[in-house]
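re the bet — no i am not wrong, look at it urself. input seq straight from the record:
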Amino acid sequence: MPRSGDELTDWFFRQFLAVLRTERVRVVRKKRLVNPDDPHRRVIRGLMDPDVDPSGRWVQILINPSRTTHRDRDEEMETLVHELAHIILPKSAERSILTIETILARTLTRAQRDCLKAFLPRHQVKHYPVSIPGAVATA
């Protein structure tokens, strides 16, 4: 497991890997990802939906692969980090999650980034796999 030398960064990285390796998280790239709660249907970077399964057994993370939203897979990985932070810290405010994302974007090593990018699928889905009421959106 790659390390950065920073205890907090390494802790978050280990938590992210633990969450991603479980079968309760599904990562999907959804073209034209919009906020389902927004009446104007604005395009967003990512979405974490904890209520996708009524039994509560799994969580879905949707990433917008559009080049206007994410220039490259590194930016998609940063959105994945943001959505994973929502899973690890479910009661944290959006402002705190954005701060964590910013810090981790600077402190994760290239090996850690590549490890997280390996969990991003290459293919895209056209439709939401399941309805997404009340999901947490990342603008």
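see?? The chain has a mean pLDDT of 84. told u. also The radius of gyration is 14 Å. so pay up
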